[in-house]
Amino acid sequence: MNSPVLNTADILTMILAGGEGRRLYPLTAERAKPAVPFGGRYRIIDFVLSNFVNSGFYRIKVLTQYKSDSLNKHLSRGWNLSTMVGHYVEAVPPQQRMGPDWFKGSADAIYQNMNLITDERPKIVCVFGADHIFKMDVRQMVLVHLAMQSACTIAAIPVPVEEARSFGVIEVDEDWKVVGFQEKPTKPREIPDRPGWALASMGNYIFDIDPLVDVLKRDAKRADSKHDFGQDILPTLMTEGRMYAYDFSKNRVPGMHDREVGYWRDVGDLDAYFAANMDLVSVTPVIDIHNQAWPIHTFAHPAAPAKFVFADDEHKRMGVATDSLVSEGCIVSGGRLNRCVLSRFVRVNSYSKVEHSILLDEVVIGRHAQVRNAIIDKHAHIKPGAKIGFDDAADRARFHVTKKGIIVVPKGAVVD
Prior knowledge:
A hairpin with a 3-residue loop joins strand 2 (37-38) and strand 3 (42-43). The strands form six sheets. Strands 1, 4, 5, 6, 8, 9, 10, 11 and 12 form a nine-stranded mixed sheet that branches. This protein has helices spanning 45-54, 69-78, 106-111, 114-120, 138-147, 161-164, 209-220, 229-240, 270-279, 392-398, and strands spanning 11-17, 37-38, 42-43, 59-64, 88-92, 124-129, 132-134, 152-160, 168-172, 178-183, 197-208, 243-247, 264-266, 307-309, 311-312, 317-318, 320-322, 325-326, 331-333, 336-342, 347-348, 353-359, 364-365, 370-376, 381-382, 387-388, 400-401, 407-409, 414-415. It is α/β, with parallel strands linked by helices. The longest helix is centred in the middle third of the chain and has 12 residues, at 209-220. Helix 7 crosses helix 8 (229-240). The chain has ten helices and 29 strands. The model has no long low-confidence stretch (mean pLDDT 93).
């Protein structure tokens, strides 16, 4: 068999970024899920966009819907590719081209924007979600798609059977041809020749254009359809054509450490979001955002470098951060941080102590304040002497607290 030839000019990327993200509330009270800040200086959507751009895919449509203002600003200010040579990242709002309805499901979002496919005339369409943290050389998946002559290829990651109960599970045969689906099964089907492991769907797909257009048009006419890729489109294609799973655990990007291989996090709820941020502050993180061979691109704010001031050890007035990420524009003025992620322009004042927490843009921590196990949204002001994370009853009376005890302080809150 001849090796497939990859021509990225034949490929259109469509990113589904319209999710409401209810399980991330209150972080999604005023922003779309893909626009939620992550890792200090990024937005969640930056990871999937960086994967495509780093892979050499430069025709990208981002389908938006829910509270998309901050997402649109981020894309327009930070993702300007060279239109002179046909490169772009474009936000596409709902336009009700097919009727008076907003997007009714992930498949309907693509169907309602069928004009994008018609105008661009690609041979292959990549449909990826915007709310996962991972690194992926998409070229490797496309080459497998071409080699298998697949109508649809689904990105999947092997997970232990016990964990697979929380995911959509893909059933495959010995050649990794898809033969069935299970939605959060109590008894996940194991991978052939790999006992104890099942295949979790990552929600990322590659389609040949003709079968995609055909199945979307037929699905739009079905009154009983939820117009969802996982529930409606993929089962239909499976019975009609060739569909294969792609083993994400075999994907490698330049500069990747062995510990990073197969790293993929669905940050769909607050505890998962918090844990993924904490992954970054480990001494040897399981995902390396400092890899210059595979950078995570984002909008670069005009800001001064982070600043740490005061070295008065005798009076415990030390500007110190340990096992932490501190973004540009921050000033740690005589306070202490441990295992924290700070977004831009945060100020931590003298004698304060912040542990195991995420502080978003322009948060102010007052003198002698103490914070632990918290996510503090932008513009919040923690007043001098305030305590968060030390009295469970008081925290629950004032704030949203997750199942794992993470306290979420909403945007603009003033906490005494």
